[in-house]
C-alpha cells in the first residue's frame, strides 16, 4: 500500500483530491457538517475493525508478507512498463492537452490543404 501511495501519479491525485475536499468543506458549512459526521463514522468503524482484525492479521502475517513481496515486485515491473505512473497528474493533463492540440492542428492543416 505504501509503495502504491508513493507513486507520483497516485500521490499527486490524492493531494488534489484532499485539497478539493478541504476547500469544499471550508466553503460550504452544510457540507462541512456532513463530512465531519462521515469522518467520525469512518474513524469509529476503523477503530472497531482494527481491534477485531488484529488477531487474524497476526495469524496470517507470514502469508501477508509473502503477498506483499509479490505485489511489490509486480508494482516495480508495472512502474517500468508504465512511466506515466511517475508523473504528477498536472503534468499528465498538460501533456494530454498539448497532444490533443497538436493532433487537432495537424488535422486542421490536412483539411485546409
From TrEMBL:
Its main location: other. It is found in: Lipid droplet. Keywords: Lipid droplet. It comes from the Eukaryota. The keyword Disulfide bond does not apply. GO terms for biological process: lipid storage; positive regulation of triglyceride storage. GO terms for cellular component: cytosol; lipid droplet. It holds the Pfam family Perilipin. The keyword Chaperone does not apply. Belongs to the perilipin family. This is PLIN3 protein. It comes from Podilymbus podiceps.
